[in-house]
Design a protein that fits this description.
The protein is α/β, with parallel strands linked by helices and 202 residues long. It has eight helices and five strands; from the N terminus they run H-E-H-E-H-E-E-H-E-H-H-H-H. It has helices at residues 6-20, 38-47, 58-70, 109-119, 138-142, 147-152, 161-171, 186-200; strands at residues 28-32, 50-55, 77-81, 92-98, 120-129. The model has no long low-confidence stretch (mean pLDDT 93). This is Cyclopropane-fatty-acyl-phospholipid synthase. InterPro entries: Arsenite_MeTrfase-like, SAM-dependent_MTases_sf.
């Protein structure tokens, strides 16, 4: 929205993900790639659910646990420092993964969806947010190195929507219920990030 602060926009985006996952009180949510813990805290405050986050980053894990303690939500939120393929067997009512599938890689995407299906309750919902590569350039893109792959997301690969759909149908029983393109908002996000960076640079 015009003149909206980055913080307010971020909270609105998190609420959108929670709403799409249809999270309710009593649900147990799995967050694959839980980052700095903002989505976990927002989900519990918004719904009263139980929340488990998974990250490979020790720094993110430590920070997220501290934020949860500060919010006094330890009874609702826990984080695991492990690979998503090493999550102990459990069935979750919803899985949310925001900005993580880009790190999975083209070759391992089928395995990602197979794992998600194994963790999800029979009537559960999987919600993904990711940056996608254009379909017509995907094969060329995934085989070359660029600035983002080299310096921002080493080893990462922005999937095309077609690649996500093919991996999903090949390795799981998931079916797509809804797709929303929020890409047009990204320009404004980048401008806010740039302004914050320039304001706080040393």
């Amino acid at each position: 929205m015009e003149n909206e602060s980055l913080e307010v926009a971020q909270q609105r985006k998190l609420s959108l993900l929670i709403d799409k996952a249809k999270v309710k009180r009593g649900h147990h949510v799995l967050d694959i790639g839980s980052g700095w813990g903002s989505l976990a805290i927002q989900a519990v405050k918004q719904t009263g659910c139980k929340y488990t986050g998974v990250t490979l980053s020790a720094e993110q894990h430590k920070y997220a646990e501290r934020k949860v303690r500060e919010a006094a939500l330890e009874d609702h939120i826990s984080f695991m420092l492990c690979d998503y393929r090493q999550i102990p067997p459990c069935k979750y009512d919803a899985i949310i993964s925001c900005g993580m599938i880009e790190h999975v890689g083209h070759e391992y995407m089928d395995e990602f969806f197979a794992c998600c299906e194994s963790y999800l309750a029979e009537d559960g919902i999987l919600v993904l947010q990711f940056i996608s590569a254009p379909e017509e350039r995907y094969e060329q893109y995934r085989r070359r190195t660029d600035f983002i792959k080299e310096y921002i997301f080493p080893g990462g690969c922005l999937p095309s929507l077609g690649r996500v759909m093919s991996a999903m149908t090949t390795s799981s029983r998931f079916c797509i219920e809804h797709v929303e393109n929020i890409g047009p908002h990204y320009y404004t996000t980048l401008m806010h990030w740039r302004d914050n960076f320039m304001t706080n640079k040393e």
